[in-house]
Amino acid sequence: MSSELVRSFYAAAEALAPEMIARRRDFHRHPELGFQEVRTAGVVTRVLTDLGLEVRTGVGQTGVIGLLEGERPGPTVLLRFDMDALPIQEENAVEYASTTAGVMHACGHDGHTAIGLTVARLLTEARAGLAGTFKFVFQPAEEGLGGARAMVADGALEGPVPVASFGMHLWNTKPLGWIASTDGPVMSAADRFTVKLHGRGGHAASPKESRDPVVAAAHIISALQSVVSRNVDALDQAVLSVTSIHAGTAFNIIPETAEILGTVRTFTPDVRDRVIERFNALVAGLATAFEVESSVEYQSGTKAVSNNAELAARVRELAAFVPGVTHIVAGERTMGSEDMSEFMDDRPGVYFFVGSRNDERGLNFGHHHPRFDFDERALVTGAALVAAAAADYTARAA
Ligand code: NI
């Protein structure tokens, strides 16, 4: 039965491809940065309203939620699509290139929004056979600005409360026909830190009068390299990157202060806690050793996206029935982060990747590149698979 479900959604999505591609190109021409998706949200609101969905706007500033009730009772599931663009000047010479200087859909969220609207239509048209409630969440500001958190704070997870969540990303490092639905952690937690060192400034010619924060910073940065290599299990993953260091004003002055910035990426709370513990110990210990004062500002950011194994496996099973899908993998992971985790939290969820690269057509630049563009046939694959996964879940859980 699931093969029929997938194939019927695929056929319907394919019939809607011209509309979906036109919408994607419209969003691409008019990209909007996080929390400024006013035009995009307007289009989303109009389409969902025209479909007859119950629509809530202004959720987390520019977020939009649409509710669709199936004919039969069943659980509520959340389907999430992000809408924001990036501060990048587009370098593609396509007719649908960005018309806004310095802003570009360079991550594919234009495609995600177009997919979401098509999924809403597919499920609306299939409503007579559906169980449960489908909550379409169109999210602003995914690119590091906290759009998901803002929507959750604004009640996105209430009335009705979803029991499972679904999300996806077009994936330009892999070709069309490739799908990844990974068991467990799939995108990392992303934290950021600022270390401030306060010593005693002085003349470079008499360092013994000073407490040099530059030397302390150098030792701290070196020591931090040992956290992942010495304190994290070799079979776990973590990244600790120092990305910025600032100190000093002149060649002959030992400065008073130094500042170090960076990020920590982890997949599990245990590893995250251990990295933070060692991070703090090394900074405090070395600062003491070098006679400078230290303060650490450690901000826990986006949580890791961790897939429910059963749901992830089900997506792989369904993907096998999608025409054109030739490679289905279970192990794709990235140290990039995603605030889809805010919607998944304690409820089972799955976040999968849909290959969208096409080397022959030159559609093979990476995400966040000024020449990023993808094979639009991936939109059909994505829409069919999201619709099928959500409908399959509510039918089985009803
Ligand atoms: Ni993205």
Topology:
Layout: H1 2-15, H2 17-29, H3 38-50, E1 54-59, E2 63-69, E3 72-82, H4 109-125, E4 131-139, H5 147-153, E5 164-175, E6 178-180, E7 184-187, E8 189-198, E9 202-203, H6 213-231, E10 238-247, E11 253-254, E12 257-266, H7 269-289, E13 293-299, E14 305-307, H8 309-319, E15 327-329, H9 341-344, E16 349-357, H10 377-397
Parallel strand pairs: 3-4, 3-5, 5-16, 6-15
Antiparallel strand pairs: 1-2, 2-4, 6-16, 7-14, 8-12, 8-13, 9-11, 10-12
Helix pairs in contact: 1-10, 2-4, 4-10, 6-7, 8-10
The structure holds nickel (II) ion.
Residues 107, 109, 169 line the site of nickel (II) ion (NI).
Arithmetic mean pLDDT: 97
Largest sheet: 8 strands, mixed
Give a count of the beta strands, DSSP E runs of length 2 or more: 16
SS class: alpha/beta
As a percent range, the share of strand residues is: 25-35%
* Number of DSSP helical runs: 10
Question: Unreliable stretches, pLDDT < 50, 5 or more residues?
Answer: none
Number of domains: 2
The third-level CATH topology of the largest domain is Aminopeptidase
Q: Mind telling me the C-alpha Rg?
A: 24 Å
**Regarding CATH, which class of the largest domain?**
Alpha Beta
Bound molecules: nickel (II) ion
Helix content: 25-40%
State the CATH superfamily name of the largest domain: Zn peptidases
Distance between the termini: 16 Å
The helix-strand sequence is HHHEEEHEHEEEEEHEEEHEEHEHEH
* Largest sheet strand order: 1-2-4-3-5-16-6-15
CATH A-level architecture of the largest domain: 3-Layer(aba) Sandwich
